[in-house]
């Protein structure tokens, strides 16, 4: 994966760059917002890691400029400012994810992978995470080289979770998305489908966490 | 600042008092002037009318009717009397009731609709380009075969009268003006002496050293004394607050330095470690210590943030159920892999209760911080297979016959809980339950700060699940619904 890292703190930049290189990624580092903008006009990246406090133009301005050019490269915002205010602004400005400094490196790399995959997976029609793959075209799931047989509803459910990883899906949302008007969705049926899906994908990094009373969270555990 | 001080001078008490007193005096002076003018005119007319009257009487006395002929001798004394007004000219005409002139200096027009009478009549008119005071008086003469009215008409220019009016008016005015000026001077002195205690207070405060918290001397008058007492109360509260901040800063310094020293120690040990096995262990320890330091720093910043925001009084309408869901959305994402059994229960009357069912007034960022801290606390102190129940429900409180709706956010866990005697203690800063866990000692104190700044209640209790039960009790905001 080809990453652009925009960060003005050299000590932090050095460690992140080294870590990404060790993982086998290509990473370019820029410490100035204007220069980062220039380089983004010249080269293609799979992911942008963006700090907010930057010399030149700040992270949000850069982000807006990128999005204004219809560049849909995933952006992960790194912020050390009073977190929550910035999160909202960052996501509104077109960021795909955020992390607050100081962050865990494993977590950072996992998030980056998830973001880059989301895009390349859509392009190649194949979702890959660890030993798990899912082909969007043929609807085939595979864990550790073994094809998993999935029923119709299970496939729909899996697709729903894969498109909204790390987000709470309420039972109502699930019922809305995978049942049509003719079928009467019962929350019990959803629960059962999830239990079956969980069992069939056991051993893969894909997890579904139940939050009783609220819904479910799908997650790819790659750390 | 400049703007503010300009506004302050405009609102100076001294200026306002002197302006209003000045306006009052001016009004009185105007009234006095109008009165004075009228009085001077009346006095001048009365004095000089008497001259005309006297002259007329002297002439009429000498008028007689001899063998049907009216005869008038104008006595010298009549003109002497009139001569008292030295610069004025006098015109006269003596005539009968049939307007038959007996003798005259000028052809004067008699008063219109005049009915001959023995009492004098006065009027003002213009004559030969001057304003002239006229008078007319008659005498009834009776002869042997005939009787008739003889009428004397005088006109006198008004130079003496005007002089007298001016003199009377300006003298009176000078006295009134003098009284006004002296009055205003007294007012100025009175204002200054009344404001003097305030100026003392101002100087005391202005010259005061920033670290001087001694109370101001309380001096009479009563009005100023009560102000000074209020200022003293404020000073003592400020001192209290500052003392607390100083203790807090000392505590923070201690905590951060300790954490950093521990980290430094681990790193030094690691750098001198020869065996790769042990080195790994050292580095792991250093990493753990670093995580604790990060957590401590984050909590310190969060604590500072909620206090700052409470001071700023940032308040907006918050939908508590929505806020809770957003917090859970972010928070639970970090714990997907854990075995903790989470359950969320939002009461149906809140979930389906319309727009105001979960409305409170407050600062969403602080409340978010409080909720995350309560849930984080439950996660951190509980076992790996903890059970955490989060519920939001409404409660109606009857208080002196009035109903108050409360929204209660309750977090129950199956962790070790907190024994009753230590529940008050854990709300204090840097107090940890202590058994080797890596808590910052700030979590519940942050929650407590947020609750206090929102006038909400924080209750710690024993949970039915076996651990701690934390209740955050907010007052529901009622919009347009009379309670």
Automatic annotation (TrEMBL), chain A:
Residues 124-220 bind DNA. InterPro entries: CheY-like_superfamily, OmpR/PhoB-type_DNA-bd, Sig_transdc_resp-reg_C-effctor, Sig_transdc_resp-reg_receiver, WalR-like, WH-like_DNA-bd_sf. CDD domains: trans_reg_C (cd00383). Residues 124-220 form the OmpR/PhoB-type domain. Keywords: DNA-binding, Phosphoprotein, Transcription, Transcription regulation, Two-component regulatory system. One of its GO terms (molecular function) is phosphorelay response regulator activity. Residues 2-116 form the Response regulatory domain. GO terms for cellular component: cytosol; protein-DNA complex. It holds the Pfam family Trans_reg_C. It comes from the Bacteria. The modification 4-aspartylphosphate is found at residue 51. GO terms for biological process: regulation of DNA-templated transcription. PANTHER family: REGULATOR OF RPOS (PTHR48111), TRANSCRIPTIONAL REGULATORY PROTEIN TCTD (PTHR48111:SF67). This is Two-component system, OmpR family, response regulator TctD. It comes from Cohaesibacter marisflavi.
From TrEMBL, chain B:
It catalyses: ATP + protein L-histidine = ADP + protein N-phospho-L-histidine. Its main location: membrane. Its EC number is 2.7.13.3. Pfam families: 2CSK_N, HATPase_c, HisKA. PROSITE patterns: HIS_KIN (PS50109). CDD domains: HATPase (cd00075), HisKA (cd00082). The chain crosses the membrane at residues 21-40, 168-191. Residues 251-478 form the Histidine kinase domain. It comes from the Bacteria. It is found in: Membrane. InterPro entries: 2CSK_N, HATPase_C_sf, HATPase_dom, His_kinase_dom, HisK_dim/P_dom, HisK_dim/P_sf, Sig_transdc_His_kin-like_C, TCS_sensor_his_kinase. Keywords: Kinase, Membrane, Phosphoprotein, Transferase, Transmembrane, Transmembrane helix. GO terms for molecular function: phosphorelay sensor kinase activity. GO terms for cellular component: plasma membrane. PANTHER family: SENSOR HISTIDINE KINASE YKOH, SENSOR PROTEIN QSEC. This is histidine kinase.
């Amino acid at each position: 994966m080809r990453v652009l890292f925009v960060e003005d703190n050299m000590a932090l930049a050095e460690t992140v760059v080294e870590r990404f290189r060790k993982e086998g990624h290509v990473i370019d580092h820029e410490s100035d917002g204007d220069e980062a903008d220039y380089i983004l006009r010249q080269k293609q990246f799979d992911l942008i890691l963006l700090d907010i406090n930057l010399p030149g133009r700040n992270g949000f301005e850069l982000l807006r400029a990128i999005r204004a050019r219809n560049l849909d490269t995933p952006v992960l915002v790194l912020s050390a400012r009073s977190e929550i205010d910035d999160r909202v602004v960052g996501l509104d400005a077109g960021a795909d994810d955020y992390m607050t400094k100081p962050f865990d490196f494993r977590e950072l790399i996992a998030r980056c992978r998830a973001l880059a995959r989301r895009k390349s997976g859509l392009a190649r029609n194949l979702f890959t995470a660890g030993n798990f793959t899912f082909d969007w075209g043929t609807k085939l799931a595979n864990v550790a080289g073994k094809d998993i047989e999935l029923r119709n509803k299970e496939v729909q459910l899996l697709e729903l979770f894969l498109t909204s990883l790390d987000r709470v899906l309420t039972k109502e949302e699930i019922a809305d998305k995978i049942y049509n008007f003719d079928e009467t969705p019962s929350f019990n049926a959803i629960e059962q489908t999830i239990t079956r899906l969980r069992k069939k994908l056991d051993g893969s990094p894909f997890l579904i966490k139940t939050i009783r009373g609220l819904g479910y969270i799908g997650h790819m555990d790659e750390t | 600042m400049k703007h503010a001080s300009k506004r302050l001078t405009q609102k100076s008490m001294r200026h306002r008092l002197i302006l209003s007193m000045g306006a009052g005096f001016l009004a009185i002076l105007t009234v006095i002037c109008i009165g004075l003018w009228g009085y001077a005119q009346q006095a001048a007319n009365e004095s000089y009318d008497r001259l005309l009257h006297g002259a007329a009487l002297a002439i009429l006395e000498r008028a007689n009717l001899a063998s049907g002929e009216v005869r008038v001798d104008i006595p010298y004394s009549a003109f002497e009397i009139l001569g008292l007004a030295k610069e004025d000219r006098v015109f006269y005409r003596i005539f009968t009731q049939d307007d038959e002139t007996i003798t005259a200096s000028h052809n004067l027009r008699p008063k219109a609709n005049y009915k001959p009478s023995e009492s004098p009549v006065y009027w003002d008119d213009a004559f030969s380009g001057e304003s002239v005071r006229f008078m007319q008086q008659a005498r009834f003469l009776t002869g042997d075969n005939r009787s008739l009215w003889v009428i004397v008409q005088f006109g006198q220019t008004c130079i003496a009268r005007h002089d007298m009016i001016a003199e009377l008016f300006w003298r009176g005015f000078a006295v009134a003006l003098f009284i006004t000026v002296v009055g205003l001077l007294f007012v100025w002195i009175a204002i200054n002496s009344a404001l003097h205690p305030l100026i003392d207070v101002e100087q005391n405060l202005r010259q005061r050293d920033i670290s001087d918290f001694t109370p101001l001397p309380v001096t009479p008058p009563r009005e100023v004394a009560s102000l000074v007492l209020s200022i003293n109360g404020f000073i003592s509260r400020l001192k209290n607050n500052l003392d607390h901040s100083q203790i807090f800063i000392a505590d923070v310094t201690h905590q951060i330095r300790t954490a950093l020293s521990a980290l430094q120690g681990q790193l030094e040990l690691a750098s001198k470690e020869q065996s790769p096995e042990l080195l790994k262990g050292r580095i792991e320890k250093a990493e753990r210590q670093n995580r604790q330091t990060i957590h401590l720093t984050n909590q310190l910043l969060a604590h500072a943030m909620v206090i700052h925001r409470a001071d700023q009084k940032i308040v907006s309408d918050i939908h508590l159920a929505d806020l809770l869901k957003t917090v859970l959305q972010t928070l639970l994402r970090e714990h997907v892999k854990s075995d903790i059994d989470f359950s969320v229960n939002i009461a149906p009357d809140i979930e389906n209760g319309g727009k105001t069912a979960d409305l409170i007034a407050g600062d969403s960022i602080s409340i978010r911080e409080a909720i995350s801290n309560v849930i984080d606390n439950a996660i951190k102190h509980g076992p790996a297979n903890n059970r955490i129940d989060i519920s939001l429900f409404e409660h109606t409180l009857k208080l002196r016959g009035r109903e108050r709706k409360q929204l209660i956010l309750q977090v129950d866990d199956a962790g070790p809980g907190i024994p009753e005697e230590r529940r008050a203690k854990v709300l204090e800063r840097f107090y940890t339950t202590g058994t080797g866990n890596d808590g910052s000692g700030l979590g519940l104190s942050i929650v407590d700060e947020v609750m206090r700044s929102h006038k909400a209640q924080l209750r710690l209790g024993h949970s039915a699940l076996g651990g701690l039960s934390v209740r955050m009790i907010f007052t529901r905001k009622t919009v347009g619904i009379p309670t």
